[in-house]
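Hi support team,

I submitted a single chain yesterday and got back a structure, but I'm not sure I'm reading the token output correctly. Could someone confirm the output below corresponds to the sequence I sent? I've pasted both exactly as they appear in my results page.

Thanks,
R.
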Amino acid sequence: MLLPAVMALSANALLLLAMVTIYDLVTAKLRPALRGRRDAVLGILLGAIGIALMMVPFKVGPGIQFDARGVLLVVAGLYAGLAPAGIAMAMTAAYRLSLGGEGALMGVVTIMASGGIGLAWRHWRRSRLANLAWPELLALGIAVNLTTLLGTVLLPPDHRAAARDDVMIPLLLVLPLATMVLGLLMRDRLRRGRDFRSLKATEERLALALAAGGQGTYDLDVRTGEAIVSPEYASMLGYDPATFRETNAAWIERLHPDDREHVAAAFRDYISGNRPEYRVEFRQRTAHGEWLWIRSVGRTMARDQHGAPLRMLGTHTDISEQKAAELTARLEMVALDAAADAVVITDRNGVIHWCNPAFTTLTGYSREEALGSSPRLLSRSGAQDQAFYEEMWSTLLRGEVWRGELINRRKDQSRYVEQQTITPVSDPQGVVTHFIAIKRDVTAQRRFEAQFHQSQKMESVGRLAGSVAHDFNNLLTVINSSIDLAQATLPPDHEARPDLQEAERAGARAVLLTRQLLGFSRQQPAKVSRVDLAEVVRGLLPMLERLIGENIEIETRFAETLPPVLIDRGQMEQVVMNLAINARDAMPTGGTLTLAMANTRLPSEDGESWVELTVRDTGMGMDAEAQEHLFEPFFTTKEPGKGTGLGLATCLGIITGAGGRITASSTPGRGTSFTIRLPGARGDADTPLPATAAATPRAPSRPTGGPASVQRILVVDDEEPVRRVMRRVLERDGFEVLEAVDGDAALVAIAEHRDSLALVITDMMMPGLSGGELIASVRAGGSAMPVILTSGYSVEFTRERAGVGADVTIVSKPFMIDQLLATVRSVLAATN
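Hi R., thanks for writing in. Yes, this is the structure output for that exact sequence:
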């Protein structure tokens, strides 16, 4: 019975293997449809196979049979799990009970034992099922079939020995081998499933990566020009992946015309071996007609026997956003390079990483010198203290923008005022990593602002000077007139007369001073006259000696005969005084001031005679740069607060306005020399001076009688001393005088004495109704009464300021008695 048992059980085992193979194929095709019902279907299929095996058993006796169902169930428990194995066990056990016979109990027990051993083995083993080796599966088969042999104890006693003898060897030889083979088949099936799932996941991850990176793949048959592409490849170009077909010709047709040549060159270089990788960027037209920037990377995967490429794999990547960002960055960089302001990027420690050309222009350092260095090492001037930089760095390291101005130093050591805006750049964690500084040279702007403030200051000083001059003129009117009255009452040989004459000369100088003040305030035009320049300088010497101090010696060298020049005397005095003061400041420890005058002739002036005045000192001198800006307004070499920068500019204006020239020469440490050249006045030097400089003839100091002794004059002035001295002068000359303290009081007096008033003398500047307004009111009332208008300003300025016509006579303060009386008589005579 041994051979039939072996043959029968071997055939049963082969049937099992065949049916399991069919099972594997069926379940592989039905796998997508088995979702949710997998365990039930698998259990039913396994149960059906088990029933099929029990239909062709090896029979030992009535109702006693052996087959390979134990092999099936132990492998089902091991690989399929509890639910499928349980269903298979239930189906096979039910079928075995339906067959009945003396071996039914043993059959059911072995069914349960085989499935249970497989499930227990699955649960207790430590390594993965996919790692099962054949020895373990063979051991599992032996264990199951030993259990089957032990189950023979459940057979009737008279059949136990015969059944055990007939099937022992086949059970322990054939079926363990079948268990091993079936287990290996199921293991390989498990591995294939695992590999399939891993490959599927990899494909899904690759698809996600390609989609996220804007990439598509292609597989090009170089010989036919046809390519297999991924869905992402087609979608990137705006085509439907389901219908898109790629060919080399269509690909070239979509290329931008400007890119075809360099793409072809890149492919030729790669094929010829000049490049290790095919990598090129180009533009392709999408299905919507737009241009898309693509980076193509590829490798040849197969070549023929001659080395010609057969197959090429690669990717297409959408780099449109990258190109747009590069364009934006390039434009921003061009804008920064072209910016007029200096731009610097540094790291957290202040080391320069980048700078634009404006920075090199501003500082004088080349880009190579600047990169890797620090702005504070390149430009620190020492003008700011440590506290300044500590406050700046504290602000920046807090992540705040710092704005301010500081004095920096160029490569040539020159200083400039720099306006800075420094912006910190932080990483995602908020840590400051870099700084962007925008720098602007505001030296000229600050100089202009200082000049503007200085000009405003000078304008205010000018207004003050004009106001002082006006009040001074009122005082001088009283002083000079009182001196004149005193001299008129004294005999020629009176001992007080020399003192009065000295006071008269001082008063005349004071009048000149007020004219200079008015000229400074631009309320007094220059009075050009024939001036003896040597006399001007000699007249200033006493004042200069007191002004420049005892440690400076004054030397004078004048030519014997000099022609007069046409210039405002007071302005010429101002020029000499300015140059002398500058010379004094240049010699703080003492020295020599030389004033020299000579005749000269300039070659280009047709032999015209010029007067040359040289003012020379032995002071510290000036360098070439200072001399270039010497006559510019507001330029000064003196310390702040010790010079306005207007002195030499004013001298230049005065001299050039008179048709002259002024030049300077200087050597550091050896002094400075200013040379003034003025054209000599044409004509004889002894020609009388213009009327503005000549003395006014005195009028008789005694009353002349006649109509003047009874004529009534109204004097209007807000200064009581001026009214008092004018009353004395006029009454001494035989006039009757009425007084009014302002314009309103004058209108009342005119209304009361309209018929008896012969003349009105009024000041221009008065509180309330001014002199000009008073005259306008008188004229508006229809009166043609003669009016004399007095003013501390020039005639032209007074006439314009008061708004009066030629019918009003103007007398400038301070006036002399004779001048006032002559004017009064002239006006009254013209009226009569």
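A quick pointer for reading it: The radius of gyration is 62 Å. Let us know if anything else looks off.

Best,
Support desk
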